[in-house]
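testing teh design pipeline on a random one, pls ignore if ur not involved
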């Protein structure tokens, strides 16, 4: 970032499961949290603050990706760790979480009461049938990442075990946008880019939830690249909603 007011800093919070790291700024404004997916590059969305100057943007990588793993490194501890960090660093701050892929599952599982909006990119709810996930262990860089893949996605070299996160929708109570790719998952095949991991059954479940609006965008799992303008429109709308939230005045 070039503007001194927008330079990122790293926030570290000790939790019962280990340290949680966040990168961003804190000027007291409403908060947009970016929860990235597996193997996200360290710089992903590090300039989003310039696009959303009226809020504070902080970025969260999955533990073991550019930051220490948690113990145990599974979705429950990751979401509880992020919940603890948000309540410690930004108590009572109206918050929207922008979750991508596995980060979308983390966003769904966070229980911090200040979270008022979710924007979820490709929030797959089940893993066993999502065949593109099965190849991820081959690109894991170390044992911590392999443990994360097994615990959260149920995939390891030569081994697949179902992970089912549909129950996270049962407690969803804030307005949520789910952005899913139009390229269907289908059967295992050679494809130029990863298809959507949100199959028809998960898509239907999201569409019938009273708090979720589903939008199909061009592309597959990487709709954040294929439909960047549309993606930013939804994130900017969520940011505007938390700025205008009437509870902000009494928080």
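output:
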């Amino acid at each position: 970032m070039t503007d001194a007011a927008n330079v990122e800093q790293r926030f570290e919070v000790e939790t019962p499961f280990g340290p949680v790291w966040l990168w961003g700024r804190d000027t007291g404004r409403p908060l947009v949290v970016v929860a990235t997916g597996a193997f996200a590059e360290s710089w992903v969305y590090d300039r989003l603050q310039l696009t959303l100057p009226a809020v504070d943007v902080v970025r969260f990588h999955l533990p073991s990706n550019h930051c220490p793993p948690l113990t145990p490194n599974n979705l429950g501890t990751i979401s509880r760790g992020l919940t603890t960090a948000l309540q410690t660093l930004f108590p009572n701050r109206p918050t929207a979480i922008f979750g991508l892929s596995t980060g979308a599952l983390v966003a769904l599982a966070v229980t911090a009461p200040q979270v008022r909006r979710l924007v979820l990119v490709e929030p797959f709810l089940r893993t066993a049938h999502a065949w593109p996930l099965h190849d991820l262990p081959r690109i894991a860089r170390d044992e911590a990442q392999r443990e994360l893949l097994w615990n959260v996605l149920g995939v390891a070299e030569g081994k697949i075990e179902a992970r089912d996160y549909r129950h996270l929708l049962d407690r969803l109570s804030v307005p949520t946008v789910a952005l899913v790719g139009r390229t269907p998952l289908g059967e295992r095949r050679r494809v130029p880019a990863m298809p959507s991991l949100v199959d028809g059954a998960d898509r239907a479940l999201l569409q019938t939830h009273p708090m979720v609006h589903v939008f199909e965008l061009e592309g597959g799992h990487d709709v954040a690249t294929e439909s960047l303008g549309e993606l930013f429109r939804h994130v900017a709308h969520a940011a505007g909603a938390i700025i205008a939230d009437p509870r902000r005045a009494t928080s």
